Amino acid sequence: MYTRVNIVDAQFGADGGFDSSGGCSPVSSRSTASESDGSGSSSSNADEFCPDPYPSGSDSRVDRTISNLLTESSACVLGDIDRHQQRMLALLPAFSSPAAAGARADALSRWLAGFDVGWVLDMDPSCFGRGGESQSLPRREVGRRVRAWAQALNTMERVFRLRHRELTVKQVEALGELAAASAGAMLKLAGAVAALGSSPSKLLAVLDVYDPVLEAFPILGRMFSWGPSHPVLTAAADTLAALVDAARSCGRDLRAFVRSHYPWRMPLGGEVHPCVGFWMGYFRCMLRNHISLCFVLGGGDQGGHGLVAELISCLEAVLEEKSAALAFPGLRQVFMLNNTFAILRRAVRSDLKMFLPPGWVRAREERMEGYIKGYMDASWAPVVSRLDDAGGGKKPTAVIRRRTSRLSAFYTALENACSAQRCWKVHNPVLRGILRKTVSANVVPAYRRYLEDHPEVEVAIGRTAELEEQLSNLFEG
Q1: Which of 390, 389, 364, 383 is nearest to 440 (CA)?
Q2: Pick from 14, 12, 37: which is nearest to 27 by CA?
Q3: For the chain, N or C: smaller number of CB within 10 Å?
Q4: CA 8, CA 350: separation in Å to the nearest integer?
Q5: Per-residue b/e over 7-38, b at no fewer than 16 CB within 10 Å?
Q6: How far apart are CA 232 and CA 222, in angstroms?
Q7: Is residue 242 classed exposed, middle or buried when 0-12, 13-18 and 19+ CB atoms within 10 A define those classes?
């Protein structure tokens, strides 16, 4: 009989209330990923797509911090809009009908530079790298530029919308020209993202770009009465189509990415593989734009619920396959127990849980119970079997010698197992406690029964306590 694993107990136990997604937690202290499940300690890349946005401290302090940040952010945005409106009025004469092309180009450059996106004017579809070529910009820089671009496009649209009704007819015409030139320049980044080679980060970039284009350009079209054949709206429609094609191509490649994108060097102590933090963070980031995800990947189950469960299952299957390389008895099961727990914990403590089918959590808990049973069968059943009595029919002296020899074999097997498993790692303290209790509950009673059944075998005083102490030091890493 083995201890039942309950994910709720393991989440809210002695390790505090780590929540990598930034979701609400009823506990007052927050631990790091490495303290809770070990998935943050193995690689600096773990969970890099969705780092924990909340600092350590009480929930009330976090709430006050968020409130202050929102207040400061709102004031900053309003101030920026007012500043951009003043810049816009100063630049409008360059977009009046008689203005020279050179003056317009210079004004457009200054207008975009005011949003820190002047670099879009120098972009071409291959500037991020395309097809099989390596990216000319690092992935993090591409992500930074996409975020700056999205913020700039959103702010521009608000500036145009809030001010155009207060302008004269001629100013509105000039503003329309500025808006068209700005929108055309901003589409260059979207085109460059669509042209990126297929990769996990490309899908995130496509989703981050798709929404702003889909929302902002129709608003601009209605604001300035652009017809459906207007060059900006036509280019926007073509860009959206290219982004959808790019996202669907990446979506088809996601399972292959899970299998091959992250380095598969196996941890020697059975701890959580760094890919778990990487991919669970990635899946959460996909769902930041889950409505767009549903649309661009074709809707239905593939757009949310089914896709998330399928990708996590793919990750679990790869972990299971790779665990075969861990040949030491019981280590494969400990590795799978650690990783299944890390996946489960990250799923239920984030928005991912809303995209998982009923029974998903309980299925993983049962799987973890199976790993514990498999670990006991592989690692400790052979140790306990050394105490099996098979001395019937022999002379008393021979029986005593055989029983003493069996006890010595048990001690040797126990020492070998403890020596190896002290180096194995189970980072979560509750899960580590469950494993230690399960081992003790199966080994110590069998040892005591053997001594009670065979009082003729001499054992040093305190040997049972020493055995219990050895078992209490397992999985420290």
Answers
A1: 383
A2: 12
A3: N
A4: 14
A5: beebbebebbbbbbbbeebeeeebbebbbbbb
A6: 12
A7: middle
DSSP 183: H
Could you write out the DSSP letters of every residue in 71-133? Answer: HHHHHHHHHHHHHHHHHHHHHGGGGSTT--HHHHHHHHHHHHHTTT-GGGGG--TTTT--TTS
Report residue 163 as tokens: 């001010």
- What are the start-end ranges of the H helices in 323-387? 331-348, 360-375, 381-384
Q: pLDDT digit string (tens) for 446-459?
A: 999 999 988 888 88
CA distance 395 to 398: 5
- Report pLDDT for 92: 93
For residues 83 and 276, give the distance between their C-alpha atoms in angstroms, rounded to a whole number.
45
- Taking alpha carbons only, the member of 7, 34, 14, 12 closest to residue 433 is 14
Residue 87's φ and ψ, nearest 5 degrees, are: -65, -40
Return the residue matching tokens 């490649």.
Answer: 253
Using CA atoms, how far apart are residues 468 and 447, in angstroms rounded to an integer? 11
Cβ-contact 448, 397 below 8 angstroms: no
Threshold 0.90, pTM exceeds:
no
Residue 351: both structure tokens together: 């928005």
Alpha-carbon gap, residue 301 to 298, rounded angstroms:
9
Buried b / exposed e along 139-172 (16+ C-beta atoms within 10 A):
beebbebbebbbbbbebbbbbbeebbeeeeeebb
Calculate the CA 437 to chain-centre distance: 31
- Token pair of 244 as six digits: 């959808």
Does residue 63 surpass a pLDDT of 50?
no
**Could you give the CA distance from residue 150 to residue 156 in angstroms, rounded to a whole number?**
10
Residue 2: name the closest of 333, 407, 413 by CA.
333
Q: Provide mean pLDDT across the span 147-167.
A: 89
Q: CB–CB of 379/417 below 8 Å?
A: yes
Q: What average pLDDT does range 399-421 have in this prediction?
A: 84
Of 3 and 132, the one with more pLDDT: 3
Q: Quick one: what percent of the chain has pLDDT higher than 90? A: 54
Q: Judge contact between 78 and 47, C-beta under 8 A.
A: no
Contacts by 383-391 with C-beta closer than 8 Å and gap 24+? Answer: 383/410, 383/413, 383/414, 383/417, 383/443, 384/410, 384/442, 384/443, 384/446, 386/410, 386/413, 387/446, 387/447, 387/450, 389/450, 389/453, 389/454
Contact criterion met (CB below 8 Å) for 417 and 380: yes
